[in-house]
UniProtKB/TrEMBL annotation:
Keywords: Membrane, Transmembrane, Transmembrane helix. The chain crosses the membrane at residues 12-31, 43-65. Residues 111-129 have a biased composition (Low complexity). It comes from Mesorhizobium zhangyense. Residues 101-129 are annotated as: Disordered. This is DUF2333 family protein.
Length: 396
């Protein structure tokens, strides 16, 4: 009685096994053909090809390693940066304000001495110190995180070559860190533009700070530049971005010596928040577009880079807004928005706790495939709503 059923399942599993074997054979055939072809070549050709093959194995092996190891990743990095500052604790001053009293110069004081002689006492001059910009400090640290503590993925040769010619962003593999770095870089470009155009000059009419201008120019460099481009030899992206670190830190050094300008006015803060709000809104729209384009769950190859780009942006803006609170401390206190700012920072920090191992872009009503993009979009819009509320208070 059971023989027909047993025979049926035996036949089914046999065909499944043959199908799997055929698929493996198709996948391995190019490598088997290449192995036979390689074995029939001469010694010199085989040696050259062998070295090339070893080079590719090393290249991709290193690429796989650096895309999986995230050195220095720490959502609480703004606290660490603030702890390195000798001026950040001056909560009653905004960035660029003097925080150390300057003596009137070297004073000569006559004092009577024994026998009618007079003595001379010299008062030493205390150099004036101004408060540094935490926005510039966070920007420099984020660039350092991207190109020094980690390899800049987008300009690596293995990244440009892709997966057998297929761009990594169109696969579910090894593009998360690159997308995360690009999200941070988007914030850095926006921030340096604001530093040059408004924050680093008096009322937007004084001379542009050359250090900030050089930093902005450096960050505008192609994100995927290698040593050789379509127009010939060029500079790789990481080496150019490192110049931006130097320029931002030089600006802060000048600011601490009271030789540079940081215009911490309420209207500049309002404009900066406007730019951040617009940037976050644009990214949330990108997430919504991907949600509408696919509901393939764990099998959507574009979901992971969309998610990690947004996460990188949120990661960077959390630090920038933490720094902004210090640079504009007097404005925030005078406008009585401290509580709103605290709420915004808490919500953004809580959103950074979302670090799924596999990104799923399922239907929002699905109980099997979660929708990580929808959750990230919600976190972005919640942060944006807090920024808009603060902006409205400033605009009254």
């Amino acid at each position: 009685m059971l023989d027909p059923i047993v025979n049926f399942f035996t036949w089914v599993f046999q065909w499944i096994g043959r199908g799997i074997g055929l698929l493996i054979g198709i996948l391995l055939w190019p490598f088997m053909w290449a192995g036979r072809w390689y074995g029939n070549r001469g010694l010199i050709l085989r040696a050259v090809l062998g070295l090339i093959l070893v080079g590719f194995v090393f290249l991709y092996g290193y690429f796989f390693y650096v895309t999986q190891v995230w050195n220095g990743f720490d959502p609480d990095y703004p606290t660490r940066i603030a702890a390195t500052s000798t001026t950040a604790k001056a909560t009653n001053a905004v960035a660029g304000d003097p925080i150390a009293a300057d003596s009137t110069g070297t004073a000569q004081t006559e004092q009577p001495a024994t026998g009618g002689a007079s003595g001379t006492t010299t008062a030493q001059t205390t150099p004036q110190t101004c408060k540094r910009s935490e926005i510039a400090a966070v920007s420099a640290d984020l660039i350092d995180f991207n190109v020094n503590r980690n390899a800049w993925i987008s300009s690596m040769l293995a990244s440009k070559m892709g997966f057998f010619g297929v761009p990594w962003r169109n696969t579910p593999f090894f593009d998360n860190k690159a997308a995360f770095q690009l999200g941070i870089n988007q914030v850095l470009r926006r921030t340096t533009t604001e530093l040059v155009d408004a924050l680093g000059r008096a009322r937007g009419t004084s001379r542009i700070d050359q250090n900030l201008q050089d930093a902005r120019t450096a960050l505008a460099w192609d994100e995927d530049a290698w040593y050789v481009g379509l127009r010939g030899p060029t500079r790789p992206t990481p080496s150019v971005y490192r110049e931006a670190i130097t320029k931002l830190r030089t600006f802060n050094g000048s600011l601490e010596k009271c030789e540079a300008t940081f215009d911490a006015r309420a209207d500049n803060l309002l404009q900066f928040l406007d730019r951040i709000s617009g940037d976050i809104g644009s990214t949330s729209d990108i997430l919504r577009s991907q949600l509408e384009a696919s509901d393939a769950g764990w099998f959507d190859p574009r979901a992971d880079d969309r998610f990690w780009f947004a996460y990188g942006q949120l990661y960077a803006y959390y630090g920038m807004l933490h720094a902004t609170r210090t640079d504009f401390s007097a404005v925030i206190r005078e406008r009585n928005i401290t509580t709103l700012w605290d709420t915004m920072q808490t919500q953004m920090r809580d959103a950074l706790n979302m670090q799924p191992w596999i990104i799923s872009n399922g239907n929002e009503s699905s109980f099997i495939f979660p929708s990580h993009l929808a959750t990230m979009g919600f976190n972005l819009l919640r942060a944006r709503s807090q920024i808009v509320e603060i902006r409205q208070v400033l605009d009254r």
